[in-house]
Design brief:
- The structure is a single chain.
- By secondary structure, the protein is mainly α.
- The chain has a domain of 52 residues.
- The chain has 2 helices and no strands.
């Protein structure tokens, strides 16, 4: 399925740009490729290594976080880290001392 040239242009070539909208790839192409993309298979023939692969990704992320110093930029403030729900709140409420 992943080597079907009617779905994936040059299926045997490593072309990561094929997943980006650009001069050679349209949004329609991306939608069609996404529908046919099943990296671990499906149903009774699902890849036995899927859980191992996902576990290894979690371990790699944990090792990355443990081995590197990750910190916010110096200009980060409490105000800049405040979570804002921009999908619901279209305006900001005034600060009220009795509401926390």
């Amino acid at each position: 399925m992943h080597r079907d040239s009617s779905v994936f242009a040059s299926p045997d070539a490593f072309i990561p740009e094929r997943w980006l909208v650009g001069p050679s790839t349209t949004q329609e192409d991306l939608t069609r490729m996404a529908a046919y993309m099943m990296p671990f298979g499906t149903g009774t023939r699902v890849c036995g290594g899927q859980n191992l692969a996902l576990m290894m990704l979690k371990l790699a992320l944990a090792a990355f976080v443990r081995n590197f110093e990750i910190r916010a930029p110096a200009e980060t403030t409490d105000l800049s880290m405040e979570i804002k729900d921009s999908f619901v709140c279209l305006f900001s409420l005034p600060e009220l001392p009795y509401i926390r």
